[in-house]
Amino acid sequence: MGKIKPIAHEDELSLVEHLDELRTRLLIIIAAFVAVLAVCFWQNDKILEIVNGPLPEGTQPATFAVSEAFMSTLTVTAYAALIITSPLIVYQLYAFVVPAFSEDEQRIARPLMLLTPLLFIGGCVFGYYIVLPAAVNFLLNFNADQFNILLRASDYYSFFGMTVLAMGALFEMPLAILIAARMGVVTSQQLRSNRRYAVLIIAIVAMLLPGVDPVSMLIEMVPLLLLFELSIWLTVWFAKPEPHEDAVTAPKTAEPDAAMR
User: Which of 9, 191, 210, 240 might form a disulfide with 162, Cβ 3.0–4.6 angstroms?
Assistant: First the structure.
């Protein structure tokens, strides 16, 4: 593993040096993930108790294959390791791309680097405590008198992992919009004037999430709408200033005075 040296904005690196740095940072991420995965697998009984928490009391996932118990346990511990190592992953990605930013842009990027894992973990917590219990309760009790409902372990743990990780990723929406605004792709005025389309897109995204029931869809839409409003304010505070119409038309209003002279 190569040593990572500090890189300033004015430094010029060759393609090989960039690839070597990227390889080193990826190896750090993989090594950390494997180490955390080993610890999580060692403590898999405690992690499984947490993951089974949203299930109704007395409900226990069932296995239908010889290797399903092992593979389900490995899947759950992998999700846990990914969530735990997410701050390190964000930092390594930030450290790789930040030398390309100017000093002013770096001053903006630093607080965003701290905010990114907090938003991700906040989304995971919201998915665990709010979305999952509502979705599981609705789906397991839907037409329960017509079916002999058996909860398969692999299906539930995949549903759990996708829901929690999806909510964590969607909570990053303010940062994604802010980056787009800093790049000049969107402006706060465009975001304000297209709120109705944003609501439609958020509803479609909530519908496509693992929780297919209308209850969890509505629950997921509420924080996403609030995060979109937060995105608008972030673009007002931190994005590049938008050109004002008065400033653009000012030279034209001065032309008659010049002609009179």
Answer: 210
